[in-house]
Amino acid sequence: GAERERVAAAVRRRTGLEARLIERIDPSLLGGLVVRVRDSKFDSSLRTRLERMRHALLERATREIIQGRTQLSEEKR
Asked: What is the pTM (predicted TM-score) of this model?
């Protein structure tokens, strides 16, 4: 339907290639889609977005913990 055509058009724009879509339902994606074109992968799945968000939050928390420790040790001097 319309969604398939939008995906095919997006693949054409990004790659210059005509798309042959093969649909598979993968519950582990939680939502969204993953498009593979030759050796490239375009991942807009909810699972990947959540993983990126988790990684960013962990990095930020780690940075803040390190900064807090640095400030504490400087205050003790």
From this structure: 0.69
